[in-house]
């Protein structure tokens, strides 16, 4: 349904043409400094009309906090956030309304609910993601206090792909590793494609503009890294951290796949190639020297950078005529009206970051419950080395 | 945590060396004919020792139903299922116990819980999946009454890959499509690799045996198809059907990625190439002629075959000596003892099927709630074409 | 937290002095005719300023539906509802702010969250119940289509009590039974106390006015009946229908107790006195002739009228000076400012009804899932009388 | 359904005549010392055959821990506990099987599920509570490490009632207060009625024996106190601590009502009588001098003793002939066979304690999440007195 998270719960609402869209965030830690400005920055990165690569439709998407804060501090109570829809009027009939749009949600919504919003995508519209981004911005604000950094970027647009997507060995692995270690949102935002590799970005922009001229669309891939993730997050066996990330990412409209760490490429390797040996981190703990695990082992974060790829299909809304069936079964040619994104990838970047923040925030709060509950128990005796190999009270983070 | 599902809820328990493993299934529809034999068949496909490609450890994994049925019918009450662990004794100390195993869950479990099971993988052991498979078998039994068929098979072992994994266009697309339309469990099981394509299966078996001789391991991919899935399943916007499938699959130990329909390859296509036009199904409804959507549009099943790939890394347990750090930070060479699977893929097949069954079953029961609730309302007036384009009461499935 | 329900989920937001209060209803059946007028009627019964028995503060509490409907029909998507707070400004400091108000939530909120809203009750304010009433009105609209009637009324104000509260035998039982069978909202609303028994109502009004003059407050009891509740609702063993009702009622501010059917009085009876024998209902089913069970047996509705009592303490906010400690531990006399309800009972009536509607609606949708899932299985063989004593397919409602 | 709790989750299974009953506890803090002996003690207090006041059926109810511990420490993984049913065989037909037992769950289970267990109460049997008591014992073991004490006792059997149940003012209030402050399980268990007041206990025993001789049964009340409950537990606005307690108590078979603190009697008081003024606790905090609030204000524990009453109806199973309808609508006289408890109250005591422990444990773990999450934020500035009236960092417990 429309709620995500167990401890840090987000419930979104809103269709493409209703009065407003937004969300309620329940379970936010009290005492967090928070104003609308903290949230608006990611909404601005998500909104349409930022460049000639996106839909020309202009919306300001200005958020207000309705509840849950006072004097700029969170009260620990539900935070309702609100963005008005400028265009609320369900549209007039036209020929196109008799067609369920191919690869859109028109047909399945009608089958599932027996009713569907009359225009735009209704609840399957990208406007639904406004609530996610607003909630994610709160999670990020909290996580920054722990040093967590989340940066996503476009790594492929159609056939234009950063090399590591197809081969993580050798030099490509090095490039991937460098990006994961250092990439910043500033670097990502300096290119309108949100690909921080200039040479690739130029080709991506060309690809997008070509598709735009064709009245067509194109897919691509977003890569995301989470740095300084606290150790110990993720709830086996069903809510492993990668499972929650996969769930979150595949809930974003237009996504087709998720892989983390070595991902699908890792299937080609042998165990001795793929395994991540441990070394001392010099601070009493361990770290890994490779990171094929993508920062997650056994479903639990290990302190290394978490990185993953998310596949997006080409936007289903295109202006080229498409031969397809009407609702009544008769066939015709659908000539879509209106404006659309030829490529959703640049705007998907803050959405991926937001969903990542929601997953990490929720997992952190759940682990905080365990950690504090455990810390109030007497230490496990040192001689029980079998279950306590460090021979000491492990201080849960 | 250890519960999966909202309406059809599965809670698993058990570590590698405790007294027993199993699960409670809560929310099973009452009146389903069910005996242990229905469950044992999938447990037998999952258990070790089925061929020389898997671990030689022999366990019978015999299940008993403890509660929730009478005279072979489900009562609608919690069904507890139970498989004893033959070897319950936590092992003696040895040198290897001072090492967290690379790419295993030893280190992260210790960090998360401050304590870990002394031997085997504890809760991260593959034995945890017994509860999933037992529960999945019940879901499948119910779903078969609706005609749902779920078949998974091995499509890649290391570098040996069925061609469609790298290219879904042209002939490869045809081969993929044929497999998806027709593959049966009998065809899958006739090869010990559980790859139904004989020529590929032979090469896969060679690859696995080579890795076994090397005391190494190898990864691979499982492809799964769900046929005759009811229309309308999946709960936007966060519990889209693909999001729940991704969550389920990434919760299986050793998984690294998930893609459905056109998946990562779909990112390279334009919208006009990728979109699935509708045609009349001749029965008053619509169907698609391509199926790049993989049976899911807008997060909701559309009646076409659902298909997806799941990436598995090479098993982390290998017998080759590995230079790695001990818990105390000192380095050494870990020479792992014991027997292990050189390749988890053949045994992963029923696990993937089981998790798929749990997702579909849960989504079906949630949609059943909506469908019956809706059916008790008066029809929407025919003239409200905007939200009811079929101009009639849509009978929710 | 702030979400109630599993299938029909309500998430409320809002403090006493933030920008707005309201809720999101997720999981509402699609195709329900719904406009703001359906909701406003119950909000009007809840709002302050309805008579000289309630707080003179005047608020219109006008609701708008922000999402989830189109052309006056629900889409099956989240319905966000919104009521602006007229007075949003956190107040200026005053002497009273140094006191946590006795029997209020000031102290516990501060202990729990480390921060608290500066004025009014924050989240513990009665304004929080606006979201509940708005959501309950939607549930009621749906339930009315099934013939469900929910009517609550005031049965006690301080020492003025309808007799059946203290003795359900003989004539008192008859009076209770008559009220339960026939009382309507119109009858309830014709008295400003919302007690439909005129003689008692007059004494209650006197009691309230006396307390108002004293700058004091007084408690009381609301009795509620649910007529025509579908059979089979409630989810043993933890979510029995009475358990959910108790949860719902005790979540209303100022409540102290809940009893259903024979309630606390039933503890005095013997089994032979208390048991409800069955008789044929003349339609192929059974009914009970007494109803000490209060319409619920084994945690499941049996089709008889469900009735229960909810105890409300006297409002904690009073204007009489109270000797109490300040936050800093020094003692003083708190002279509360402002206006308050001398008795919350009349305004509690629609809140009790709303929470009852939410419980029944959620339970109905959960049972609908089971019923439709079961109906798709073949019937249980007739000869299995042990588990199927009717010897036939039981048609789940 | 059969899961209780969010952070400390208990899922029970088992009918009266299946192979075993028990539960899975998920989310237990790791590192808790735990053996079967910790659990058996409460199961022994719950089991039948303890005195001539309870059913003569003898069952040992011996528990084994199947998973989740090693070397007597919890691993933080699911703990499955298991009690075999000695008598597993569904019974032979007899005349009584054609009757749904009055005020039992036979009829409603059949209506809800379309099928019912053939003998005993199936899932509505008191044997279901074994899993609750086993889980509650773990919660209690953890809570004891925090000094929490939970003691329940029988305060009424039929007409024999401790005086404070009808009047909490004056001397009765003093007696209640003394009991709440000091009563121990040893004191409770020294009387077979589990009423610690000797004079009343004798009369209760007489009442029970009288009803036993009559082949009848009798109801009563359990009073429970929770001492040293941490401050800050309970999750407004829907999961207030009293709401969760009410939910838990009303989920116990045969319960009819719940009241906490002043309860239903509090409805008769004025605000100035009822309010609990604060005084300094001499340790930098505040306490209340009366405790009409029953340890909970605004839905949140305030550190005072939590106390509440739970009403139990007379057991529905009696051996006196009852005129009632058969399943087929024909009437007859049901002459119940077998042995039964004439009064469930003595055995209900550990069940009430267990459910109380589950509620407090779950609430504590949820608050621990908030507290640790908050503690990692910078303090709120001292000058924001409006929302931070203590002018300092509040250290959440």
Automatic annotation (TrEMBL), chains A, B, C, D:
Pathway: Metabolic intermediate biosynthesis; chorismate biosynthesis; chorismate from D-erythrose 4-phosphate and phosphoenolpyruvate: step 7/7. It catalyses: 5-O-(1-carboxyvinyl)-3-phosphoshikimate = chorismate + phosphate. Reduced FMN (FMNH(2)). Its cofactor is FMNH2. GO terms for biological process: amino acid biosynthetic process; aromatic amino acid family biosynthetic process; chorismate biosynthetic process. Its EC number is 4.2.3.5. InterPro entries: Chorismate_synth, Chorismate_synth_AroC_sf, Chorismate_synthase_CS. The keyword Amino-acid biosynthesis applies. Coiled coil: none annotated. It is an enzyme of class 4 (lyase). It holds the Pfam family Chorismate_synt. GO terms for molecular function: chorismate synthase activity; FMN binding. GO terms for cellular component: cytosol. Keywords: Amino-acid biosynthesis, Aromatic amino acid biosynthesis, Lyase. PANTHER family: CHORISMATE SYNTHASE (PTHR21085). Homotetramer. HAMAP family: Chorismate_synth (MF_00300). Belongs to the chorismate synthase family. This is Chorismate synthase. It comes from Smittium megazygosporum.
